Structure prediction request, 198 residues.
Amino acid sequence: MARTAGVDEAGRGPLAGPVVAAAVILPEGEFSGLADSKTLSETARRRLAGEIRARAVAWGLAVVSPADIDHFNILEATMRGMQQAVARLAPQPELVLVDGNRCPSLAMPARAIVGGDATEPAISAASILAKVARDQLMVALDQTHPGYGFAQHKGYPTAAHRAALERLGPCIAHRQSFAPVRRAMAARAALTGDETLR
Prediction:
């Protein structure tokens, strides 16, 4: 049986923070409790993340910054993160299963599986690692950039986050290429007269 890695990401949709990609090669045999990270409680995700890191044959994480997301675009940034996560696996996989409808360019065969985070245990494991790692990064960003509520909404475009954006303007953790952030920058520029914010 080919040594198979599952790959997934967390954070494509938020207005702030990085996108985090994870790759996991699970041991043979059953690994109970795995599911799409979005369907699990935070407590369950954290517990499972610890088990995955302890029991996996290999696992890798990659963090792509908001600046790189703005430079490359979110899709390309995500693909680059997945490439980096797979590159950090030792041993390297012989086959890679990727959640979604497209695969990054890799040195080994890869297959995209829509909804794979719910059906493929290795992708579920990657989904959990990526989500837990990104959530921790967003809690840390909440400490360095207070007022936006990053620890609560994790950078997603909630009503509270949009209100904070309007009130405070964007910070360095925001993705300037995303339309709501651009609008907030333009509004801030109109208020302050600072043309560099446009």
Q: What stands out?
A: The mean pLDDT is 95. The domain at 4-142 is CATH 3.30.420.10 (Nucleotidyltransferase; domain 5). The CA atoms of residues 58 and 117 lie 18 Å apart. The first helix runs from residue 42 to 55.
